[in-house]
Amino acid sequence: MSYQPGNPWFICDRCGFKKRRSEMRREWNGLMVCKEDFEPRHPQDVMVRGRKENQRVPNARPRQPDVFLEAGDVTADDL
Length: 79
Hints:
Blueprint: E1 9-11, E2 18-20, E3 24-26, E4 32-34, H1 43-47
């Protein structure tokens, strides 16, 4: 607990213990943690990327207008 020039005290962002700067490491997410609490970034966080999907409908057609029938438009002969 003595003075060390260029090696100040830090508080670990994960466990909250007081450690010297030389015992701390910065994680990929910006946290300053002690060596015991350091977790490297998972490889899939960097390598796996999403791909765009083709979500278009093949042979799409515009919607047809609605046709409304009135009384007498359909007769027994039409059936």
